[in-house]
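lol ok so funny story. i was supposed to be doing the assay writeup but got distracted and ended up predicting the structure for this chain instead. priorities right. anyway since i did it might as well share w the group, maybe its usefull for someone
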Amino acid sequence: MTESGTPASAAETVEQVVRAQLAVALGGFRGSLETALPTVAFTIAYIVSQSLRPSLVIGIALAAVLVLIRAVQRSPMRYVLNSLFGILIAGVFAARSGHAKDAFLPGIITNAAYGAAMILSIVTRWPVVGFVVGTATGDPTGWREDPAMVKLCSKLTWLLVLPCVLRVVIEYPMYQADAIGALGTAKVILGWPLQVASLAAMGAVLTRSRTPVQPPPQAN
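and the output, tada:
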């Protein structure tokens, strides 16, 4: 059963199944916003102050407030914790190297790794989005029996790959050139806004298409 209360088996189209399970996996608008806000706050603070410590304090403090709100509401905290973990890793990289630009290196490495992994999943016809659906429905690999589902999940996975590729292609040359101000600005623009654009594109694909769910083969 999906978070909305509709059983996945009751869906009439592949798009309905994928849309419901992506909403659960990504945490909806609130989950995506909570993941982005502390990182954006940290990055903007760093661009303005050019100082690592106060920037970390601001990012961590905002994440702590969001965690507290979630705790009071007794709702899942994983989206905020993901962002908090990312900020801490960025601080560790910069502190260990002594170079401020290295605060942005974990994000570049992570996007390169995610992008490469998702492209490989598409090439091998095991697109990542398919696992999002399969895991949520309790059958991690059953979706591969439906060619329409594989095709749709591949298309949606490409829409997740594109932001990762853009971030690496744009941010890495700035990192190499020590252009910290431009790098920080790029990180903000290519973060939350680009993610929203990617999700909007996925939503458009899911809204426009209507691929019938292929029923499982009947046993003889």
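Residues 19-208 form one domain. The chain has a mean pLDDT of 81.
back to the writeup now i swear
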